[in-house]
Amino acid sequence: MSLFKKEACCLCGGKTGLLDKKCQDGKVCKECTKKLSVWFEDYKNSSREQLENQLQIRQRQAEELKNYHFDKVFGEFGVILIDDKARKFVAFPDTSSGLFGSQRKVKSLDDVIDLGPDLIDFDQVEDFEIDVTQTSREEKQTVDGQQVSYDPAHILYMVTFTLRLQIKDHPYINSMYIQLNDGAVQIHNLGRRLWTDPGRKLAAHLLGLPGMIKEDQEVIFDNESLLHYFMRSPYEMPDYSYGFKCTQRNWDEIRKYHYYLIMAREIQRIITGTET
């Protein structure tokens, strides 16, 4: 005799497991959960009738999606597809699969549509927030078999860009979140450095471009001209990007930071008509 009584799924009558979702009228099996919206969370306060209604809405939308032209596509981890003319969009929070997200669920626009996204009207977006989340850790070196700090300290900053949307007047979605970058932008703070070549510094300033020199056989960008470069842009950069060694690797990552911030603000501008 089993210790746990197997409940039938309240939607399809199939088998349910111990960890399956519970609604007001029983459990929902994994297969039915997959058919419901990826943005839906409130199983506890939902009846079987409400869940069945959601399935019917999603079935109708699956046909409706074929009539839209999603000409703007954003994101690499989560994705958001926009039909600007129809003022509609669909989104999906995670397009990765496999261990550590090492494989991709989608390779084309059609693959995203096949996942069954929900159609949202621009006017249903009540609040739109760009969440730039930063974490950091100190990088250390091994000296005599022990991990010790550099002098000055080397800090690795890791940044993710996530859109957080509050949705109104929707039958089963209250909020959405879409992380744009697949893997954090990583900026290495390698400690303050001095500029010792005033001629090159002046040339970089006059050209309005980041200057480059070689320091210990490593390509380094002139930080002051780098600051000048970004000061001409309406998009801010993190304070730790200035006044520190900027290697080619850092330059590439700083440009990624810039890229994702521009992407987030462009999505916000299209959907809300405003930009922060």
What's the short story on this structure?
With 276 residues, this protein is of the alpha+beta class.
Q: Largest sheet at a glance?
A: 4 strands, antiparallel
- Tally of individual helices: 6
Helix content: 25-40%
Cα distance spanning the termini: 61 Å
- Order of strands in the sheet with the most strands? 3-4-5-8
Q: Tell me the structural class.
A: alpha+beta
Radius of gyration: 25 Å
Overall geometric form = globular
Extract low-pLDDT stretches. Answer: none
Q: Would you tell me the overall average pLDDT?
A: 80
Number of distinct beta strands: 14
How large is the share of residues in beta strands?
25-35%
Helix-strand sequence: EEHHEEEEEHEEEEEHEEHH
Describe the protein:
- The protein has a domain at 28-182.
- It is 26% helix and 30% strand.
- The protein contains 6 helices and 14 strands.
- The strands form 5 sheets. It has a 4-stranded antiparallel β-sheet, with no helix packed on it.
- The longest helix has 25 residues, at 248-272.
- The mean pLDDT is 80.
Structure characteristics:
276 residues, alpha+beta, four-stranded antiparallel beta sheet, 6 helices, 26% helix
Write the layout of secondary structure elements.
Blueprint: E1 21-23, E2 26-28, H1 30-35, H2 48-64, E3 72-74, E4 79-83, E5 88-92, E6 96-97, E7 103-104, H3 109-114, E8 120-121, E9 125-143, E10 146-167, E11 175-179, E12 185-189, H4 198-207, E13 212-215, E14 218-221, H5 223-231, H6 248-272
